[in-house]
Amino acid sequence: MPEVPWVDGILSAEQVAETAASIAAMQEPSGAVPWTVGEHTDIWNHVEAAMAMLVGGQVEAAERAYAWVPTLQRADGSWPMKIVAGEVEDERGEVNMSSYFAVGLWHHWLVRRDIAFLQRYWPSVRAGLDWVVSLQLPFGGIAWSQQWVDGRPGPAEEGALLAGSSSIYQSLRAGVALADLLDDPQPEWELAGGRLGHAIREHRDLFMDKSTFSMDWYYPVLGGAVRGPDGLDGLELLAPRWDDFVVPGLGIRCVDTNPWVTGAETCELVMALDALGDQRRALTLLAEMQHLRSEGGKYWTGWVYRDATNVGEQADVNWPPEWTTYTAAAVILAVDALGETHGHATEGSGIMRGTSLAPHFTELALECGCESAGLLS
Q1: Are 313 and 36 in contact, with CB atoms under 8 Å apart?
Q2: CA neighbours closer than 13 Å in the CB half-sphere of residue 116
Q3: Phi, psi of 228 (to 5 degrees)
Q4: What sections of 82-239 are H helices per DSSP?
Q5: pLDDT score recorded for residue 292
């Protein structure tokens, strides 16, 4: 078994390998990795699970997961939003999900250095990102989904999601890195990435308002668009709402109005903090969310805690009562990120820090009314 990541005093290599095996155990015969047994699969969380299985020693399962991805891709490059047991449950194309294969494929390259693997799946990544950038809005955000009617593409949904667009920014940088490696330049992705990064940094008010969700708070940092010199911009963005979302000793809330902490969001914030160089708080959060660890290395989705808002109601329970692959995957990737400085990491450790991705994009040909940072040559 390949050497897997670990973090001193929090999770051992054996525990990480056990968690990766727990994801593989929920993988369907087709290669699909659902949220949990019997639940739906979406491409974003499926790819995240493949990344985690790869660094957790489940290489065969990870590569079966990647082989499944193109089988659900449509002629326009998109993927359906929900698949249950191989059948499409929600036909809509969601841009964030349809872009993330680029991150997974670049991550596989960092870990395995298998050029044939990249060449095999590059056409799928290219088609997906071409479709995603076709839905860019004038202010730079990406329309969050496209309707499908009678099995055919319909109109784009109105509005862009900040968390989703922030993840797409990372996907575009991964896509351009792949394009450069394979000598297949994609200048339109670079142009779209520059406009998207500008929107995330300067026009967050133009995205759909999902500010009650913690993902909208930290994803501009995690996706890489908001970091700045020495991470100062990212730390400044996180500071005002830290106490709204972080629950000491437990993790972070999924939604600021509910006494419910979730493991995946906590570990994503861990990776955002690591990218900013704030390993102290990242390590604390990773350690504190381990109360969600269960038998066999599985992870509960979240925990409802007792506070002034739910006195007398059901509290101090794991909810939903399920172990989810995406939570386990986020744990493994957070361990790999922090393992570089506090234990052991794989060659894929920097995927969220973006150190191996294509450079940040120049802000060109803006349509939001702001002055462009450069001129098209």
Answers
A1: no
A2: 1
A3: 75, 180
A4: 95-99, 101-112, 115-133, 162-181, 187-202, 214-222, 232-238
A5: 98
